[in-house]
Design brief:
Elements (H helix, E strand, L loop, with lengths): L1 E2 L9 E5 L3 H12 L3 E5 L17 E2 L1 H4 L5 H17 L8 E4 L5 H10 L4 E4 H7 L9 E5 L3 E2 L2 H14 L3 E3 L12 E4 L13 E11 L9 E3 L6 E5 L4 E5 L12 H14 L7 E12 L6 E5 L2 E5 L5 H18 L1 E2 L4 E3 L1
Parallel strand pairs: 2-3, 2-10, 3-9, 5-12, 10-17, 16-19
Antiparallel strand pairs: 1-18, 4-8, 5-7, 6-7, 11-14, 11-15, 12-13, 13-14, 16-17
Length: 338
Amino acid sequence: MHQSSKSSRSESAVSVIGAGIAGAWQALLFAQAGHAVTLHERSDATLTQSTSHWAGGMLAPYCEAEVSEPVIVRLGLRSLDLWRENLPETPFNGSLVVAHPRDRSDFERFARLTTGHRRLDAQALARIEPSLEDRFREALFYPDEGHVEPRRVLPQLHARIRAAGGTVQFNSEATPEDCDGIVIDCRGLFARDTQPELRGVKGEMILVETAEVELSRPVRLMHPRWPLYVIPRADHLFMLGATSLESEATGVSLRSALELLSAAYTVHPAFAEARVVEFGSGLRPAFPDHLPRIAIDKERIAVNGLYRHGFLLAPALAELTLSYVERGTIDNEVMQCA
């Protein structure tokens, strides 16, 4: 980072466009810092048109080190602190990585490429997740990671924005040209009018319900094509996900559904009798390098390209944006100035 000559702007008006996870964190930190914040969202409060609605909500920077650049881990670790500070009720029960014997090499590779974990034998695994007793002979446990339920935590963030003095306007299809003052554009793929290099990467999910399985933390299963995530939700619900497809088609493909459901069954046979509640997919906004970007052009700031790390990176990116506006601080790995 370096410090520019930019002067401080306390209490200036800020418009944030997009109330998904990226925009919500921007609005929250700016409102808490005393700025007059208005958060605009083109859809209603359910956010069903937002990528965040379909996200897994995993806060797993250590696990992401397997396939991500170091900047993702750095920002992710900072975000963990911000989640704890601002939403102390966030579950930080850790996460687990498991594999069947045929995928042992993938398991060992994951262990070599990541840090922050300890190995559990079958007995230790059964102690922290009794539902997985006798299912796997070993696991990697990342105790400092967490997870949130997107459809529950986003309304909480919006409520905190209001409590900090900000305004949240749903059904408000604003563009950067419509807003005065400092504008923070968090429209995701809808920002391709100004950031044409963005593309959508489809992520698919299945929501199932069963009272026969209880999990306290996300479980990643090594898979021949992609790791399966089984993420616990409230009311005996589980999200199955982790597909990442170079496609902007909507919906869940038959092949993905079969593979996700079959892999879940190998985590625990009770998933075979689970009730399927929902199929869904979202398009993650990504730049060609799969890295996030804060693009600065005078008083217009675009925060985009969070790819599949939205819930992990959004708090740290908001902190960087606030630091730039108030102190002129530049993070050279993330920020680009016109």
